[in-house]
Amino acid sequence: MPARAEVEQRRRRRQEQHDAALREVLAASVGAALSEPAARLALAALMAAARARPTGLRRTSQRDGLACTLFRVPGSLGVLHAPTWRVWLPGRVAVFHRPSTAAVLSAVSAVDDGEIRALVVVEGAA
Fold it and tell me: Is 29 exposed, middle or buried (0-12, 13-18, 19+ CB in 10 A)?
């Protein structure tokens, strides 16, 4: 196989894998376990958002076709969940969305039932 054809084939394969990871992240709910490629894509967007200038109680940025908005939610514990690692986000909730849409954190409520504590998050993109 000529070198150019091989390079083009590898490029197409990487793009297909990237597109699959992007679809997985966009379809996942907040805190859901992601595959390794999807989690790496989400982490890149999350780190870009963490470095972004805050606008009110949120920070938004994008990377590689995926946008992330970090909402400041006191008392919450967000997580980016990969097969072999986790990123804990104390006081933050990360919402992943397409760059052309705005993230919406419509309802957050803490549930405390003695021994059980949970954070219920309803999110989406507008």
Answer: exposed
Find the angle CA(54)-CA(60)-CA(66) to the nearest 5 degrees. 165
- Domain coordinates in residue numbering, the chain: 3-125
**pLDDT tens figures, 39-57:** 999 999 999 999 999 999 9
Q: How far apart are CA 48 and CA 29, in angstroms?
A: 20
d(CA 19, CA 77): 28
CA distance 13 to 78: 32
